[in-house]
Specification:
With 298 residues, this protein is an alpha+beta fold. Helices cover 22% and strands 24% of the residues. The strands form five sheets. The protein has a five-stranded mixed barrel. A four-stranded mixed sheet has the order 11-17-13-14, with no helix packed on it.
Length: 298
């Protein structure tokens, strides 16, 4: 059986702008040069924009430590800010070309130099929050094409993006969804494995306990001390806020979630993180390497 044809992505040129927003290591605002380009984004979900045409981007294939997660709320919570959350955010903004970033109390940017920076995105759709899921580039793409063009993205083009940059430095986790072409997922998996082996001092891998085991006493363990896969953090943070510190009901909670994923065959999916997350006493760990999984976007 021949290999499936690579999935094309839509190229959109424009500018990044962060003033008044709360960027983190995998989310940033983008304004196309031509706002009608948002209609070119593939898929049934429409990209949500403000009145000026600015939309939130979610960087494809990666997941940064949370700087402000609401979930089961009502208050926002975060992962350890000084153990990778702010490092990923700052690295993304610096790579894009922003300097002298100033913030109000919290995560909102009050000023930056310059106010906008030029760049491009490569997208195959929007997520459930109507954010544009994209590979994020600066300047002009190589090779170049007209904005709105549908192009096949290869590995060299992937390597022009912030997604690859952050992953190669170990500042973010790999987290793949089905929309990301298989050859790009494979390259990003290898990049993540190399970063994990290097364990650079400022990387998430230097302190990661996703696979070795996270000993959880309470919500503060997650917000102040433990570096774990953000997807697992979000599920645990919701659980702890709903049910308290005992993990007795966590497997049932995870089983009731809507997480669907596969390992190699997209036609053979599995539902529920309880099948791959071990809970022993107060310790939680993910069994497979995260780059072995591909999630199905809901």
């Amino acid at each position: 059986m021949p290999a499936p044809a690579p999935t094309p992505m839509t190229l959109i040129k424009g500018r990044y702008q962060i003033k008044g927003s709360e960027p983190d290591g995998d989310t940033v605002k983008f304004l196309p040069d031509d706002i009608t380009m948002w209609a070119k984004v593939p898929g049934e979900r429409k990209v949500k924009t403000n009145q000026q045409g600015v939309a939130s981007l979610r960087l494809d294939g990666i997941d940064a430590l949370e700087t402000h997660y609401q979930g089961a709320g009502p208050d926002f919570v975060h992962q350890p800010l000084d153990l990778g959350a702010h490092a990923a955010r700052d690295a993304l903004l610096t790579w894009l070309g922003f300097t002298a970033v100033e913030r109000q109390l919290g995560e909102t940017v009050s000023a930056a130099t310059p106010e906008t920076v030029p760049g491009f995105i490569l997208t195959s759709g929007a997520d459930t929050f109507n954010r544009c899921v994209a590979l994020v580039g600066r300047g002009a793409p190589v090779p170049d094409a007209e904005s709105g063009a549908s192009i096949t993205v290869d590995v060299p083009m992937l390597h022009q993006t912030a997604n690859h940059e952050l992953l190669s430095r170990g500042l973010v986790y790999p987290t793949f969804y089905k929309n990301l072409p298989k050859d790009l997922r494979f390259d990003m998996a290898v990049t993540a494995q190399q970063a994990r082996a290097a364990k650079a001092p400022d990387s998430v891998w230097a302190n990661d306990v996703t696979h070795s085991g996270a000993a959880i006493e309470d919500l503060g363990s997650l917000t102040d001390h433990l570096v774990i896969l953000p997807k697992l953090f979000r599920r645990l943070a919701d659980y702890l806020r709903l049910f308290g510190p005992s993990l007795d009901r966590l497997p049932v909670f995870l089983a009731g979630g809507d997480d669907e994923y596969f390992f190699n065959d997209p036609d053979r999916t599995t539902r529920g993180l309880h099948r791959i997350v071990d809970v022993v006493g107060d310790t939680v760990k993910l069994r497979p390497a995260i780059e072995e999984l591909t999630f199905v976007e809901k």
